[in-house]
Amino acid sequence: MTDLPPDLPRLRTLETWLALALDEVRQAIALAERREAERRRGLEVRPALPEWLLEQGLNRDSAPVQVHVGGCWNAGKRVRGIGRDGALRVLTDGVKACGACRPDSELGLLD
Predict the structure, then answer these.
(1) Phi and psi for 54 in degrees, rounded to 5?
(2) Which of 11, 21, 48, 51 is most open to solvent, judged by the fewest CB atoms within 10 Å of its CB?
(3) Could you write out the DSSP letters of every residue in 40-107?
């Protein structure tokens, strides 16, 4: 058997403590369920990655540095999404294609 106390006052105290502990566990479960629902919702409403990325130079006035395929691991922090036509235009204007994701091949410029 269990090691429960034999007298009623201590059993009632234990019952109260267990009820409070169970309430805390249920609150923690509800919080975890809300966080998981928020995480799933965030994934559902996340905007799609742009198909092509244009990596900017060090300041606002400098020329673009590279073109990347959207989601490229090698893209720097100073990127903005551009469309297919924009990617083709800047590549044909002489902006370098990323050597990792090869947007020039993806766009059919090297075929």
Answers:
(1) -110, 115
(2) 48
(3) HHHHHHPPPPPSEEEE--SSTTSPP-EEEETT-TT--SSEEEE-HHHHHHHHHTTPEEPTTT-HHHHT
Identify the CA nearest to 103 among candidates 111, 93, 91: 91
Looking at the 3D structure of the chain, how many domains does it have?
Answer: 2
Per-residue pLDDT tens digits for 60-91: 788 899 999 998 999 888 999 999 999 999 99
CA 83 to chain centre: 22
Handedness of CA 46, 47, 50, 56 (dihedral sign): negative
Token pair for residue 55?
Answer: 């990596």
Could you tell me the pTM of the whole model?
Answer: 0.60
